[in-house]
Design brief:
Blueprint: H1 2-72, H2 79-82, H3 87-251, H4 257-299, H5 302-308, H6 311-355
Helix pairs in contact: 1-3, 3-4, 3-6, 4-6
Amino acid sequence: MRREIRHLAHSVEDSIVSKVNELSSALLDTSNNIHCLNSKIQAYRQEQNAAVEVLKENVDVCLRHISSREATTPLQLTSARDSPTNPWRMVRDKEATILELERKNDHLRAKHESVQEKLKEKSEELLNSSRLLSEKSQEASLLQDSLAVAERRLAESQREVERTALRLRHAEEDSEKQTTRMKNEIARLERELLNERERHSSSLLGLQQELKQVHLESSSWQERYMREKQKTSQLSEEVSQSRTQRLRFEKVDSARSEEDTDNLEKGNSVVSPELEDMKTKYDALKKELTQLKRKVAQNGSAQDFSAVASPEEFSRLILEKRDIEEVCLSFDRKFQKQTQVLKRLDQMLKESEAKV
């Protein structure tokens, strides 16, 4: 940019100098032409005045000669008028000469006016060129000022670049130091990680074995649960049958109430040992569940199993545990409902016996 500004300033200066030289040469030519024309006009005016004076003298001489000759000699009309010494012919020649001189004078006056107009135009052009020269000089000064400002800015930017390069070198050195420290730290952490893996490999194998044992116990518990569920469904069917029998007993006549009461006691006596058996099995199952929960608590929390097992297997175990707990709760509710139904049946049986 600095080179372009200098080139532009030099080109402007060269154009201004060439224009001034052209205008000065044209002005010198114009002034020389004006001086020549003025000298020619003055010489012509002097010649014209001298010719007029001579012509006046000749006219006076001719008039005096004519007056004296007419007084002495008679007038010859034909031959004397054509002779070169005829005063009238001399007067006509002088008049023609005067007219020719006047035409030349008019031509020279018109030429002088045109030269003056051209001189005015050249002077106006010179004024315009001087004005343009002043404007160009102002522009050149402004360009020089802007060039100086640009040079200062360039120097400042160069200093800023040097400072930035210095900061960049310092930052690179700091980053290299930090990189070496981080590499050393990573190597140390890798060594610690290998040591921790070797240290916990034995405990990991033990936890995996315990996890397999828990899986086996949970599968066996699920099988027991399915068997107990089937027995519970059978018991619920028997309870529903006893309920239908109770409804049927209520609708019969009072005459057959004793026989129905005996049948109900027999059915109750049949159901009650099965109910006791179911209750004992449920208590045993509940006890096994508590033992299983205690064993799981001793082996570790859910986070320990998650560290040992895979995520899919751990989620599956959590879902199985949740399902088992829900089934146990539902089994508790069903067992409570069945006990309540049996209590109501016993009470109704007692009421029917009292009525009988």
